[in-house]
Amino acid sequence: MTESDKILVPKDLYKEQYSPEFAGRWDELIDWQRRGEAENNFFQDILKGHGVETVLDIACGTGFHSVTLKADGFQVTAADGAPNMLVWTRQNAQRLGIGDLRIVEAEWTRLGESFAGEQFDAVICLGNAFTHLFDEGDRIKALSEMYKLLTRDGIAIIDQRNYDAILDNGFSSKHQSYYLGEKVEVRPEYLSEDLLTMRYKYEDGEVHFLTLCPIRQEYVTNLLLDAGFRSVKRYGDFVENYDLYEPDFVIQVARK
């Protein structure tokens, strides 16, 4: 994976790609109702099983997990580095009657500055967001920042597309777990071992792109262990026992 560090991708490219227009249409891609049905309280059950009360969502996007977890009784802080996404986090929270959701713009490599003196029972980074980091040093730093913000026995949860399957077998999607909007065509525009550009085409012809780093499952597990986490458990599309190439998304739960 050290080769990925040679890719010259601007560190803040994601902020540009999550434009006001794309952020404003992101929920068409997710489909909150169908996403909730697909997850079937998976994250709530994981959090409750670890005795979690306080949650820091560092990649809140338009707020799906922050808002739903807050509605389910968790003490949630929603954070993201993309200000255009936070606009919609706030709007969605207000729309659903969660007006007291704490929302913070924060960079992953400087979480300790944004949340100085605070600790959380869980830090979550969902929606394939961790793969916006192209520099291995930034990945290590981000995990270190997450680790330091956790209480004793706290957990970090990170998910990603199944890049093992994409890199080894080509892109496919069962369209059953994560991005469930019916009117958005999602496919790779460019794929190499070091870089993936995803193309999102909406029904009216509008097109947006995201540039991502296709990191493999075992690599992320090892990063978590190297960061100091005692154990890491992996799930594929919300199932614990899965074939390496079977799921569309992989979720890793790391315990401090």
From TrEMBL:
<dbReference type="GO" id="GO:0032259">
    <property type="term" value="P:methylation"/>
</dbReference>
<dbReference type="GO" id="GO:0042802">
    <property type="term" value="F:identical protein binding"/>
</dbReference>
<dbReference type="InterPro" id="IPR041698">
    <property type="entry name" value="Methyltransf_25"/>
</dbReference>
<dbReference type="GO" id="GO:0017174">
    <property type="term" value="F:glycine N-methyltransferase activity"/>
</dbReference>
<dbReference type="GO" id="GO:0046500">
    <property type="term" value="P:S-adenosylmethionine metabolic process"/>
</dbReference>
<dbReference type="GO" id="GO:0005829">
    <property type="term" value="C:cytosol"/>
</dbReference>
<dbReference type="GO" id="GO:0006111">
    <property type="term" value="P:regulation of gluconeogenesis"/>
</dbReference>
<dbReference type="GO" id="GO:1904047">
    <property type="term" value="F:S-adenosyl-L-methionine binding"/>
</dbReference>
<protein>
    <recommendedName>
        <fullName>Glycine N-methyltransferase</fullName>
        <ecNumber>2.1.1.20</ecNumber>
    </recommendedName>
</protein>
<dbReference type="GO" id="GO:0016594">
    <property type="term" value="F:glycine binding"/>
</dbReference>
<dbReference type="GO" id="GO:0006730">
    <property type="term" value="P:one-carbon metabolic process"/>
</dbReference>
<keyword id="KW-0489">Methyltransferase</keyword>
<dbReference type="GO" id="GO:0051289">
    <property type="term" value="P:protein homotetramerization"/>
</dbReference>
<keyword id="KW-0808">Transferase</keyword>
<keyword id="KW-0949">S-adenosyl-L-methionine</keyword>
<dbReference type="InterPro" id="IPR029063">
    <property type="entry name" value="SAM-dependent_MTases_sf"/>
</dbReference>
<dbReference type="InterPro" id="IPR014369">
    <property type="entry name" value="Gly/Sar_N_MeTrfase"/>
</dbReference>
<dbReference type="GO" id="GO:0046498">
    <property type="term" value="P:S-adenosylhomocysteine metabolic process"/>
</dbReference>
<feature type="domain" description="Methyltransferase">
    <location>
        <begin position="55"/>
        <end position="154"/>
    </location>
</feature>
<dbReference type="GO" id="GO:1901052">
    <property type="term" value="P:sarcosine metabolic process"/>
</dbReference>
<dbReference type="GO" id="GO:0005542">
    <property type="term" value="F:folic acid binding"/>
</dbReference>
<dbReference type="Pfam" id="PF13649">
    <property type="entry name" value="Methyltransf_25"/>
</dbReference>
<keyword id="KW-0290">Folate-binding</keyword>
